[in-house]
Design goal:
A hairpin with a 5-residue loop joins strand 1 and strand 2. The chain is globular. Strands 1-2-3 form a three-stranded mixed beta sheet. The longest helix has 20 residues. By secondary structure, it is an alpha+beta fold. The protein has one domain: GMP Synthetase, Chain A, domain 3 (2-Layer Sandwich). Helix content is 45%, strand content 20%.
Length: 120
């Protein structure tokens, strides 16, 4: 079994901590329910690309990403208090479209080949 690299371990830890920090620190109802789906950390641990999805918010995904980018410094500060690394990566938020893509793909498959019920 292959071991996780340091950047992967740090990415998983950032994902966990950021999800909690966002839930506790950002109280904008327009954002809806935010999910941190994954985090990619650069090899030098200076940058972290944070993939998020938003459900049920009144803001567009572009507005949501812009709002997260605006508070990235504050989120990074809270994150620095929870991480054990020497430096805390700069955060860049990106929309994770994999959930929407999966939904569209599933709908296409359902429209082409309807599921037949099993006879009992």
């Amino acid at each position: 079994m292959k071991e996780f690299s340091r950047t992967q371990r740090v990415g998983v830890q950032i994902q966990r901590e950021l999800a909690d920090i966002i839930r506790r620190e950002i109280s904008d109802p327009g954002l809806g329910m935010l999910t941190v789906s994954s985090v990619d950390v650069s090899p030098d641990l200076k940058y972290a690309r944070v993939y998020v999805t938003a459900l049920g918010g009144s803001l567009s995904i572009e507005q949501t990403i812009a709002k997260l980018d605006a508070v990235a410094g504050r989120l990074r500060h809270h994150l620095s208090q929870r991480l054990t690394t020497r430096t805390t990566p700069r955060l860049q938020f990106v929309h994770d479209s994999s959930i929407e893509y999966g939904s569209r793909l599933s709908a296409l498959i359902d429209s082409v080949a309807p599921v037949k019920e099993c006879e009992k």
